[in-house]
Amino acid sequence: MADVTASDSALRRFLHGLPGVDAVGLQARAAALGTRSIKTSAKAYALDLAISMIDLTTLEGADTPGKVRALSAKGVRPDPTDPTAPSVAAICVYPDMVPVARKALDGTGVKVASVATAFPSGRAGLPVKLADTAEAVSAGADEIDMVIDRGAFLAGRYREVFETIEAVKAACRRPDGTSAHLKVIFETGELSTYDNVRRASWLAMLAGADFIKTSTGKVAVNATPPVTLLMLEAVRDFHAATGVRVGLKPAGGIRTAKDAIKYLVLVNETAGEAWLTADWFRFGASSLLNDLLMQRQKLSTGRYSGPDYVTVD
């Protein structure tokens, strides 16, 4: 693949030369895949897989160390009555709560993720964004969820967005040479068009993103099946062109087991089975886990336990 990032003009030509998105076709395919049904045995597998892919999240101004510790305990053992229930992939918190989550999760296999770079707006100078990232990484974050400046992207300042992602990626490196994984959030609900979502996906992957992520969960429109399908096509095509595999994280608005399974079908049918792992696909969610647990209990007992049987986070 030619170096399309060598100059502003080359990057712009590449991004605007990407095929235009057939919105009607995209929405129709996402809707059709959403009607797929799965067998009961496959449903049990899908529920556990979805649980293992969750970034269990608390991103509120009222977050306390106690809440983060409680959420971490739930992430490690989501169903205290059933030790076979898998742990979630990660606990996602603000940078100042990373030390609390790190202490609670050490040795459990559950990752610590932290939002950074002036989340959720992305409107801050680069030194602030880098300091935000460095603070989280030094405190023990395994993963950084950064957010792009949508204003810069929509104004066509692609090089600025590209170089910011590169710089944040560099700030994810630790003194021992390892690096926290970088997830790049687009806030797709503010990008206006599917074409912009495709351009943002390729821009972030070219800049070194380990994951691309739909949303912050802080705006009215978050993850949707069509947008997720489009981003799955992007990571699939990027892998085919470069040999580099990039993960995907839809976030915000995915609240039910039924919805989660629809997204897993999208992954399998679009990017392929290789992406059906927490290494390459995540759900950004706070309430989804409870419904997955209730559906899991129903499959094993034949009874629907209801929301009183799970914690309110």
UniProtKB/TrEMBL annotation:
GO biological process terms on file: carbohydrate catabolic process; deoxyribonucleotide catabolic process
Name of the protein: Deoxyribose-phosphate aldolase
Domain of life: Bacteria
Any one GO CC term of the record: cytoplasm
SUPFAM superfamilies: Aldolase
UniProt keyword terms in alphabetical order: Lyase, Schiff base
GO molecular function: deoxyribose-phosphate aldolase activity
Coiled coil stretches, renumbered: none
UniProt key word Lyase: yes
Family recorded in the similarity comment: Belongs to the DeoC/FbaB aldolase family. DeoC type 2 subfamily.
Pathway: Carbohydrate degradation; 2-deoxy-D-ribose 1-phosphate degradation; D-glyceraldehyde 3-phosphate and acetaldehyde from 2-deoxy-alpha-D-ribose 1-phosphate: step 2/2
Record's keyword annotation contains Isomerase: no
PANTHER family per record: DEOXYRIBOSE-PHOSPHATE ALDOLASE
InterPro entries in alphabetical order: Aldolase_TIM, DeoC, DeoC/FbaB/LacD_aldolase
EC number: 4.1.2.4
Organism name: Wenjunlia vitaminophila (Streptomyces vitaminophilus)
Catalytic activity reported: 2-deoxy-D-ribose 5-phosphate = D-glyceraldehyde 3-phosphate + acetaldehyde
Pfam families: DeoC
